[in-house]
Amino acid sequence: MVGDVRIFVIHAHPVEESYSAAVRDRTVQALMEAGHEVELSRLGDGSEHGPDDLDDYQMLVVVAPIWWGGLPAQLLAWIQRVLGPSIDRTETAGQPSPLSTIQHLAAVVTHGSSRLINQLEGEPARQLLKRSMLPLCADEATFDWVSLYKLDRLSRIDLENFIESAAAEVVAITNG
Amino acid sequence: MTMRVLVVDSFDPDGPGAHTADAAVEVLAEAGHDVRRISLVTDEFTPFMSTAERLVYHDEGSNILTDEVRRSVEALAWAEGLLFAYPTVCFNPPARLKAWMDRVLLPGVAFGFDDAGRVAPGLTHIRRLGVVTSGPHGRIATARARDGGRRMIMRALRMNCAKTCRRTFVSVGGPGEHKALSRKLSRW
What we know:
heterodimer; A: alpha/beta; Rossmann fold; 5-stranded parallel beta sheet; B: Rossmann fold; two-stranded antiparallel sheet
């Protein structure tokens, strides 16, 4: 698939001047430059609630900081509200999942702690996407987890490099 | 030995499973512990971190902006045991409980940073950490989904507690299945 993938980007960080927002902006820009249609939802400080369905999209990109190993509360709230009935199999008999058109599920996430610490914690956010959300996507949908560690201990150059490499990695997913 | 126990309850008091938190509090009180309970649903605890809160997040000592967070921080400082009671949703704690973790477990409260910028434990007075939960899935499905609540609390949060802190995890299947809960919590 080159160009023209309909992509939904959902972001959750309460501060618009945050590094996470900069990662989001560069990723969205790179996807648009590659010819894709991008829709963005900023869950930010909880005033936005996110989409109710993603029927019109082929790719979902989650951009978020990882706090306590998990997703920020407002993003977890969106997943539990929109996907809860499918994941917990309540009231969904015969209904397609809200992610049934999604062929690529990707996350771009930042961690304050090291990769080792996150492995010891068991990466609960990654497991939620991979084990509970990916099975709701289209058959043979892809899953990518693009992650940065030790956010507060990296140099400015490392941080800038990640913004570029993460955006390039997400664009590469759309090229199959 | 009895201790001071904070129960962070995120069951909806009108929803299924609310009796699970009541049962946990009852068992702990009967064992002679001094129990304090915070009910996030009843208190309508704000379920996300605000922009203002994030902006001062790293300012230890001045990063508590609301009374609801201050009450939880004080209760946490008072406690020796910490028990989370919640319904498991999407193999995770309810978002409101995650918001409590995001907003209350602050730098200077739950952790600090050492000279190398690594996280240093801040809850070293917590010597018992527990979860009491109920959910729509069985044990195998929950294990396969890699239970997020269990990992966030029993592993990530545990790293910030006392070195010898002991853990208790109880999953309650349905009403009447409170035997495991009594058995495990009565050892606190």
